[in-house]
Amino acid sequence: MTDRKELPPEAVRALAEAEERRKNAKPIVLPVELGGRDGPEPVRFGDYEKKGIAVDF
């Protein structure tokens, strides 16, 4: 990775601001899904399969 001393001052400041925002960010609380599928969300992969029937979005 590039040493931060080699970066322009604006980039160093932006990295510091981003790090501060990440440190102060609240964790995302997602509701528990009841009766959902096991494993990764199939919609992200563009298709859905259940009981041998595949549906392509």
TrEMBL record:
Short name of one Pfam family: DUF1674
Domain of life: Bacteria
Annotated InterPro entries: SDHF4
Similarity comment: Belongs to the SDHAF4 family.
Identification of the protein by name: Uncharacterized protein DUF1674
